Recover the amino acids of this structure.
C-alpha cells in the first residue's frame, strides 16, 4: 500500500510543478482577465445571488484575480469572509468590511489582522476556493498544505473552485482526505460533469 501512496504523492508533485509553471507564465493581465470573466459568470448565478455570507480567497498574482468578487461582495452588502491561516494547516473564515483590513502574511498572502474575530464555517452560504488544478467532478489539487482539506468539511454550503480552463485535468490523483468542490468555474463558465 505504501507504494501506491508514494505514486500518488509523486504524481501530485508533478502536476503541481506543471500548474505553477503555467500560472507563473500567465502574467497579471491574464490572471486579471480570468478573474473578471469568472466574477461575471459567478455573480449572475443563483449561487451568488442567494448567498448572504460569502467566503472568498484573496488571490495572489499567480491566481485568477478575486478582487472583482471581493469588491462586489462588499458593494452588495454581503458578509465577506476571507481566509486567515494558522499553524498545522488550520484556516478560519474572518469577516472583513473593507480590503484595507488585509495585510501581508505568510506565504505572501494577504490576510486579515489576528485580532479580527472569525466566523463559524457552518454559517457560510458560499465558499470560493483556489486550486492549482481541478477535475470536472470537483476534485481539486491545492498547494499541498491541506488547509482547504481541513476547512471544507466544516462548511455546509456549496463550494466553487476557480480554475483556469488550461488547468482542468480530466482525472486527478486522489487520497482519502481530498475534498471535492460542488462546482468548477473557469474563465469560459461553469464546468458540468461528463
Amino acid at each position: 500500500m505504501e507504494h501506491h501512496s508514494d505514486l500518488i504523492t509523486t504524481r501530485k508533485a508533478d502536476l503541481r510543478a506543471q500548474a505553477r509553471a503555467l500560472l507563473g507564465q500567465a502574467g497579471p493581465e491574464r490572471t486579471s482577465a480570468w478573474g473578471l470573466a469568472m466574477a461575471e459568470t459567478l455573480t449572475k448565478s443563483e449561487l451568488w445571488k442567494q448567498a448572504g455570507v460569502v467566503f472568498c480567497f484573496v488571490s495572489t498574482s499567480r491566481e485568477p484575480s478575486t478582487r472583482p468578487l471581493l469588491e462586489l461582495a462588499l458593494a452588495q452588502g454581503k458578509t465577506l469572509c476571507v481566509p486567515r491561516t494558522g499553524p498545522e494547516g488550520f484556516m478560519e473564515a474572518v469577516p472583513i468590511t473593507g480590503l484595507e483590513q488585509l495585510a501581508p502574511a505568510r506565504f505572501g498572502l494577504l490576510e486579515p489582522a489576528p485580532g479580527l474575530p472569525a466566523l463559524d464555517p457552518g454559517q457560510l452560504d458560499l465558499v470560493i476556493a483556489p486550486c492549482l488544478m481541478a477535475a470536472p467532478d470537483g476534485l481539486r489539487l491545492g498547494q499541498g498544505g491541506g488547509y482547504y482539506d481541513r476547512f471544507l468539511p466544516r462548511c455546509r454550503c456549496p463550494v466553487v473552485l476557480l480554475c483556469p480552463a488550461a488547468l482542468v485535468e480530466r482525472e486527478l490523483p486522489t487520497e482519502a482526505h481530498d475534498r471535492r468542490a460542488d462546482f468548477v468555474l473557469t474563465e469560459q463558465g461553469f464546468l458540468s460533469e461528463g
The radius of gyration is 16 Å. The mean pLDDT is 93. Residues 2-191 form a domain with the Rossmann fold fold (CATH 3.40.50.10420). The longest strand covers residues 79-85.
